[in-house]
# Entry
Amino acid sequence: MKTAVMGAGAVGGYFGAMLARAGHDVTLIARPQHVEAIGKHGLIFEGRNFNGAIPVTATSDASGVEGADVVLFCVKSSDTESAGQSIAPFLKADATVLCLQNGVDNAERLQANIRQIAVPTVVYVAAEMAGPGRIKHHGRGELIIGPSSASADIAGQFTAAAIPTTVSDNVMSDLWAKLITNCAYNAVSAVAQLPYGAMLKVKGVREVIDSAIDECLSVAHAAGISIPANVKQAVFALAEAVPNQYSSTAQDLARGKLTEIDFLNGYVVRKGAELGIPTPTNLALHVMVKLREAHLQQSHS
# Structure
């Protein structure tokens, strides 16, 4: 199975590395500094069960998706439309595009810019870019993919490559469960620049997270989305599973980059306003991260 990873950062790099280790033909499409490092040393992988260099093809050109049977679409949510337009001319007619992104509306937005069906995919992995061409894996690594003609075969091949993958007919519910997790952790971890375990030890943080989750659940229910009954328990269990993990939003701010917060807490705020559901906790979390972004932009100007 030939696979291309569009946006090979922490998430895309991790899954690309796992597939390459299992013998699949993988092309990573990444930023030039990562491509250069991978070309010299391979993709350096640091994890609990493996440490070493993985030989893999890397390019910074969107044409890297050409000929791929499966495309893992892993760009930031704010880049969905532009990245979709850039790969569209090179996609094979029967390619399957899996949308491995934060938020709940990326597949729909991507679909408008490519000929192929964009399959919504839920990602559970704790990973970070530890430098140019270096992936550090902290834990987990599962995928839940929506239904398509190729989904069952992809799930089987990914699972055989040590990427536990299931196909769900209710993937929107799964995406919302992931969104709720992101709304609970990302902004707090980002503003504090603390990993999950440490931030939960600060007095009042659990109550803030609890309130953010309740608001998300109210919005989801008003939108007709069914959420698993144990979602709150699962959210708090995450800090015990990966206590040293920083949120992707925290990692972005630490690198001086803009975040995806508009598609996380910001999305819940917008959807809540549309449905008449108040979301003051999510609004506060969204605004705090936007203030940090404004500070970064001011310091760079």
Q: What stands out?
A: Strands lie at 2-6, 25-29, 43-46, 51-54, 57-59, 70-73, 96-100, 118-131, 134-145, 165-167. The chain has a mean pLDDT of 95. The CA atoms of residues 133 and 244 lie 21 Å apart. Residues 2-169 form a domain with the Rossmann fold fold (CATH 3.40.50.720).
